[in-house]
Every structure is written in structure tokens, then in C-alpha cells.
Design goal:
The protein is α+β, with helices and mostly antiparallel strands. 37% of the residues lie in helices and 32% in strands. It folds into 3 domains: 49 residues; 62 residues, Protein of unknown function (DUF541), domain 1 (Translation Initiation Factor IF3, 2-Layer Sandwich), CATH 3.30.110; 112 residues, Protein of unknown function (DUF541), domain 2 (Alpha-Beta Plaits). Strands 2, 3, 4, 5, 7 and 8 form a 6-stranded antiparallel sheet that branches. A 3-stranded antiparallel sheet has the order 1-9-6, with helices on one face. The longest helix is centred in the first third of the chain and has 33 residues. The chain is elongated.
Amino acid sequence: MVSKQSPVVSLLYYWVLLLGMDERIKNIVGFFAVITVMMFAYAAASYVHTYAKSINPSSFRSFSVSAEGKTVSIPDVAEFTFSVITEGGKDVGALQKENSEKINRINALLKAKGIGEKDIKTTNYNVDPRYQYYNCPEKGGVCPPPQIAGYTINQSVKVKIRDFAKIGDLLSGVVENGANSVSQLAFTIDDPTKSQNEARAEAIGKARTKAVGLAQAGGFTLGKLLSIEETSYAPPVPYASFEGAKYGMGGGGAAPAIEPGSQEVLVTVTLKYEMK
């Protein structure tokens, strides 16, 4: 009658039998153990290599193609910058008051013409000293140091105009109400997203077609798309810079006629593909 043995006793029993085997059997068992370890190592290395390729696309044999897409749109926003520059003596408070009165008068004009507060933005405010320099004595003596003779306040404001019919009057009006300089007038697209999407779609289509043609010519198969890089550019349409009473402003002349023209939105894409 065979009695039941615990798993531990059974394991010890078989281990004793294994120790009792002759040297040939132990060599065979060792050989298969080595083969098993080698197979496991190969499987692990293959997995690591595959995983590394999946997270590091540069390990593929690959090539890149680039193409440009373009759309032409009509600008819907005009932007310009005006500056109020006030020079005076050493009383900075009085200069600030004078400068602020001019700025407030111009801002009131802009709002009266329908320009919203969100489209009026101060971009620069400087208070700079002006120095009085002295000639040094011709023969020896101490050269007097420069002294502050007064201050200059310069405040610049950027304005967005959404109704182009008002551009000429506004350019004239800001000068008539105290602006010393009007510059950087440019037309642009306030939200270029739609134009960029259209240009991007065109660029990707051209790049994909180019990739297929290169694969056919090179005798290889086009693999999966590894990456996409994009650059986009919507150059503003400049007009002119002018100061004081030029172009009929500040002297009661006619306001300048302004035409927005058209604007190109350019998108360049670079596609990187796997080569098979």
C-alpha cells in the first residue's frame, strides 16, 4: 500500500534520484537547461529591440519629404501704432499730466469711432532723462559732469481697426489730437486658423504624393508615417510709417486712402516615413 507523501517530501525524493543519476544523464539535463536559458534570452532581446524601435522612430530606415501649402485671404484687421512724446523740464508730474491728457483725448476719439477697449493696448511707456553736457576746459581744470536738464515721456499705443472704412479718419484724428508719430500700419488676419488648416491640408497632400513617387523611384515600399513637422507664416501687409503733418494729417488735409489688398498664409510640412 503506497502512502501519500507531502509535496516537500516528493521534491526531496526526486532531487535524491537526480543526484543518483550518472554523469551522462546530468550532462543531458544541463544541456537542455542551457538551451532553455538561451532561448529565453533571445526572446527577451527581440522584445527589447522591437520595443526600442517603437519608441525611437529614428532607429528605422527612413526618409523625409517637404512641401508647401498656400492660401490667399483678405485681411480683416488693420493695426497701427501711435506715440505721444512730451518733453519738458524736471517736473515729471506735470509732464505725465500733459502726456496723459493727450493720450486720453486720443483714446476717447478712438472709442467714439467704434474701437473697443480690447483693441486699444499700451505697448510702451518710458520716462527718460535729458542731459545737459558741458565743454571741458581747454587747459587743465575739471570737466563738469553732465546734469539732468529735463525729462521726456514717450507712450506708445497699438490700435486694431476692424472697419476699414474708418482707417483714414482715425490716422488723421490721432495726430490732430496730440500724437507725434503714427507708424507700423499693417493688415493681417485676426484668426488665421481656417486659412492655416487649408494650407496645411494642401501641404500634406503634396508631401504624401512626393513620398509615394520617391518610394517608387527608389525601389522600396513606403512604410508608416513616423513624424510630422510644420512651420507656418502669415506675413502682414505693410502700408507706411509717417509723422506729424505728413500725408495731409494735422493740417486739415484729406485723410489718406487705404486699401488692404490680400494676404498669403504659408504652411510648410515635413513628413518622415519608414522605408521597407
